[in-house]
Structure formats: C-alpha cells, structure tokens
Amino acid sequence: MAEGGSMESAAGRYQSTLDALSSLITKKSRADKSNKGDRYDLLFDYLKILELDEAISQLKIIHVAGTKGKGSTCTFAESILRNCGFRTGLFTSPHLIDVRERFRLDGLEISEEKFLEYFWWCYDRLKEKTNDDVPMPTYFRFLALLAFKIFAAEQVDVAILEVGLGGRFDATNVVKKPIVCGISSLGYDHMEILGNTLGEIAGEKAGIFKHEIPAFTVPQPDEAMHVLEEKASKLNGPLPEPFIKGLTTASLQGRAQIVPDIESPGNLVFYLDGAHSPESMEACARWFSLCTRDDNHLSNLNYQPQQHMDEGSKKDTAQILLFNCMSVRDPQLLLPRLMRTCASHGVCFQKALFVPNISVYHKVGSQALPTVDPQVDLSWQFGLQRAWESLMQSDKGVKPSNTDQACEEVKDDTGMRVTSFKNSSVFSSLPSAIKWLRDTAQKDRFVCFQVLVTGSLHLIGDVLRLIKK
C-alpha cells in the first residue's frame, strides 16, 4: 500500500497514488448489447466488495447525461443547491490539472488528505477481493466507485453525478433511484461507441432514466427528442432567489474562464473554453466575441487594460487563437464554425497558433508539467494550420493553393521550431507558444492581446498549469 511508511514524503505518497490509478487505464471497449457494455454487470460486484449497495440507495442523487453542457448543468445544480443551504457532492469529468478536481464537497475539490484516505480504502479492498473472473475496475469505473464512497462517507445531502460517456452502460448508472435525471443538449460525439445517428445516441443517453423518476431535457433535434419524449419534461415557472444566485455564481474551470496573465499585466488575457464540438465551438465564439467587445467583464478580476496608457486614452486590442483538438475531431467542422461566428460579431483573429498538448492520455499526472518532447510529431498541427489558412483565404476570395508560398520556418529563443504562415504559426511546444505571446505583449504595450484557447480540455489544463505557476 503506497500510503504506508512514515518516511515517504507527502509528494511521494501522492505520486504513488496517481501511479496506482494510472495502472487502471485500459483501451476503451464499445458499449453495445453484444458485450453488455464491457461487462457492465461487474460494477455490481464491485459495489458488494466495497459494501456500497446500501450507502448508494441512501444517497439523494441528481444524474445528468448529454453531449454538450452536462458538466455545466451539474455545476449549476450544485451551486444552486449549495446556495439553498445543502451539503453537496459533485462528480464531473475530465479533470484539467489534478484528478481531485473530479470530486467536490461543498463546491471545493476534495483535500489531498481525504482523497488519499478514500482512494486507498477502495483500492486495497478491490485489490484483495478481485480475481481473473472479477478483475480490477477500469479507470473511470474506479473513479465513479470512489465518488460514491466519498459522498457516502462525507454524508452529503445531495450528490450530483455527471455521466462519463453515454449513459446506459456508464459506471455512474448503477444508481437505481436518483431523485431526478437530466439530458443536456445532444449531438454527434463518440459515435464509435454510442452509435451513428442521433436516435441511437439519444437511446444510450436515455439509459439513465428510471421508472417513476422525474426526467428533464432541453429542446433537442426531432430525431433525438422522439427517443426522449416519453420520459422527458420541461420545467417552467420563475426561479427562486437561491436558484438565481446559484446560477450566476457557478463556475467550472476551463469553461468560459478568463485569466489575465500575471507576467504581462494589462497586456495579455487568456479566454479559456474547452469547446470541442461544432455546436459548442459556435457557443464559445459567441461568448468570446461578447467578452472582447465589453471591457466590463474584467472588472471583477482586478484587471486594468489601460494601466500603461495616458489618462483618457484607450488601449487597442488584438485577438489571437491558441488551438489544438484531438485527431478524432474534424477541424473542417470546428474551425469554420469558430472563425465565421466570431467574424459575424465583428471579431477577427490576427493570428492563430497551433500547438501539441503536453498532457498524455495513458497516465494520470501530478501538478508538475511533464517534460516537453523535442521530437514531437507535429503533422496534426500542420494539418490544422493548413485548414485555417485555407479557410482564411477562401473567405477573402483567394485560392487556397497560394497558402504554400508564404511558409517560413524559424527557431524561437529556446531553439524550438516555429513554422509560420501569414495568418498562423505552428509551435513545437505549448511553452514556446506562451513565451511568444508574452514576448509579443511586452514588445507592444499599447495593445491588449486577447487569446482564445479552445478545441481541447487537455489543452486548457496544460495552459492553466503554465500560466498559473
């Protein structure tokens, strides 16, 4: 057991815990009828091993699935209930910097001490009782079981659970009687697992609905609504004051988050939103456009965009895009929605920067940034750059073939490659892109650089690690 031994440092104990958690990461399996959702029935064996059956039945649980907005919906619900005076537990995914972000008690991520205690309580019992027939739970299943243990032991009044993927075979769906279920906006995502049509996707999400349990949804495409309509309803009527306060004060890292750069005060602001679908990209673009037209949105951040200017003068602004997305996404669906929605609101990007993520997907990391790989494969980022340049020039009536003529490859101050077109650059690493932004902001102190970071929640987490150090 990693927490044994008084000589082990706190950082070492925590890293040992993350290593144990990383050992549970496996390749995803398609959740369909032929494999019972990758042996979904095992979850009930795990509950018996951990003696959580009765504890879960006593919890008051709000269960939310969907394609877009389910994490935000859970966050809104938690904030409302906390402002109504309830003790809350919130389980969401993914985390951006630290795995403890997934488990919140009364709005705050669980302490390291409690996380270690509950983690090893669950891990050791499962390690002792599992075998070839009932193997150790996979990564997300373990995290869901851990959430149930935490919320039961901490005696929360209400637990809000965000589905990880799908619904019918999701680890959170062992809840037999939630107090309410919800389906946020549905769209095309994780089609290799959930199905190729909105109807099939809605069917998987609707798997969280339970007999005689209230269920709510938002307006959906007809194909999806047809699947949901018998179990869905709408809530009408004025919101009580605690609901309004909860909604207006709710926040979730990496979603519509604004962070002024501490190293370039007054000159560099990061706008972070983990949008990664066409619909959420459009919503992100509308939010960014609204923010960049209105200086008042920074008033609560102690940010002074004109602090280096003479009294009465106004600083110019320049918008820059910092982007990456996973290779399973289609940039031809994401980038046009982003650029054209911004353009329709009068916002045009001076430059687009494409970078690789730092985070890896096969290991749970600590708060320390992993070492940047100097040999990183940038072929995906070059593809994103070509798509952006083609999009920019086609909107200006220029033939896309001209994009190759303006390519320039240079090295930055750290020796890392930077490949630039007129409207965009590919950086070999995220730190070098952040350094370029900071250097640019320092050189032109009469301009406030507004950087939209989007396309990947992994990228958002990496940026937060760098700019909050």
TrEMBL record:
Cofactor info, note text: A monovalent cation.
Q: What EC number(s) does its UniProt record assign?
A: 6.3.2.17
Cite the Mur ligase central domain residue spans from the record.
64-213
Needed cofactors: a monovalent cation
Pfam families in the record, alphabetically? Mur_ligase_M (PF08245)
> Mind telling me which residue stretches traverse the membrane in this protein?
none
- Kindly state which keywords UniProt assigns to this record, in alphabetical order: ATP-binding, Ligase, Magnesium, Metal-binding, Nucleotide-binding, One-carbon metabolism
Q: Where does ATP bind?
A: R255, D273
This protein's pathway: Cofactor biosynthesis; tetrahydrofolylpolyglutamate biosynthesis
NCBIfam families for the chain: folC
User: Know the name of this protein?
Assistant: Folylpolyglutamate synthase
